[in-house]
Amino acid sequence: VQLQESGPGLVKPSQTLSLTCTVSGGSITTNYYYWSWVRQPPGKGLEWIGYIAYSGSTVYSPSLRSRTSISRDTIYLQMNSLKPEDTAVYYCNSNYNYWGQGIQVTVSS
């Protein structure tokens, strides 16, 4: 299974971030797979954003729940009202330790 993140590298504050994680070599709906988004701000550790399960159910980090949505078409992440502190490398991964290479997102005017 291979994962590939794609989306804009630069977003302005207050705008919406939209990222896609394309899965190849496997199916998003395969039983017992959970597909997560995580991020790593510069100089900090990994922060879990949320996941979507093979069933379509979603769970989000409490701190980001109000402005985050994950959908299953291509493991699509949408995050609203972006702030400079949302600047990070964003990764998608699965519970079977498959990871994308990550995509740098910078929030700046």
Describe this structure in words.
This protein is mainly β and 109 residues long. 0% of the residues lie in helices and 48% in strands. The protein is built from no helices and 10 strands. Strands 2-10-9-4-5-6 form a 6-stranded mixed sheet, with no helix packed on it. The protein has a 4-stranded antiparallel sheet with strand order 1-3-8-7, with no helix packed on it. A hairpin with a 4-residue loop joins strand 5 and strand 6. It is globular, with a radius of gyration of 13 Å.
Describe the structure using short key phrases.
109 residues; 10 strands; 6-stranded mixed beta sheet; 0% helix; single chain; mainly beta
Residue windows where pLDDT falls under 50 for at least 5 positions: none
Radius of gyration: 13 Å
Number of helices: 0
Morphology call: globular
Q: What do the pLDDT scores average to? A: 95
Share of residues in strands = over 45%
Helix percentage: under 10%
